[in-house]
Amino acid sequence: MQKRLFSRPSLSSTQMRPSDQRFCSVLHTLQSPQNVGTIIRAHVAFGGGPVVFIGQGRPWDFKKGSQAFSRKLERLCELVFLEHDAAFFDWSLHQGYMPVAVEIAEHASPLPGFRFPERPAIVVGNERAGLSPAFLTRCEAVVSIPQFGNVECHNVAVSCALAMYELNRCRADVLPIAGSKFALNT
């Protein structure tokens, strides 16, 4: 059964900018509050639509661990909680999102230069287990991030943020950085 929680009920899809619905981020059984918070912060910064949680026994509890990294930006997101993989693939089909998994996999496409579908669902998996081969076969595409140093892999939050950046780096509708703390010379 699909569970939905809207953190900001007054925000309807008709009030959102078109870019807000351009992609969604999907967190499959993530455990670390820091990773979830970091992904939420990047998701909002890149203008994402819904944030989908798969496989959590209960809706994610945004406490100090997550909020220290998210800066409480989850309040700006539509949060969707789905119990299992099949519910996610049904949801993405009905919402018009194409799942693109970020995973170290044998036949993954390199992220640089990858052509994302029009409405991708950027999927990242559990910090230790990643995404199962069965899940990956149901995705529209699987991408991996090349590495040039002597490190086994990127952190899941870094990987997700890199995929969001690659998706959005050529956008023309860039907004100014919010707040006065960071003054930019133009």
Describe the structure.
The protein is of the alpha/beta class. It is built from five helices and eight strands. It has helices spanning 33-45, 64-70, 85-95, 133-137, 156-168, and strands spanning 2-6, 24-28, 51-54, 78-82, 98-102, 109-110, 120-124, 141-144. It has an eight-stranded mixed sheet with strand order 1-4-3-2-7-5-8-6, sandwiched between helices. Strand 2 (24-28), helix 1 (33-45) and strand 3 (51-54) form a beta-alpha-beta unit. The longest helix has 13 residues, at 33-45. 34% of the residues are buried. Mean pLDDT is 83; it is low at 1-20.
State the order of secondary-structure elements, H for helix, E for strand.
Answer: EEHEHEHEEEHEH
How far apart lie the N and C ends?
50 Å
Helix content: 25-40%
In total, the number of strands is: 8
Tell me the strand percentage band: 15-25%
Question: Gist?
Answer:
By secondary structure, the chain is an alpha/beta fold.
List descriptors.
186 residues; alpha/beta; 5 helices; globular; disordered N terminus
Q: What's the helix and strand layout?
A:
Elements: E1 2-6, E2 24-28, H1 33-45, E3 51-54, H2 64-70, E4 78-82, H3 85-95, E5 98-102, E6 109-110, E7 120-124, H4 133-137, E8 141-144, H5 156-168
Helix pairs in contact: 1-2, 1-5
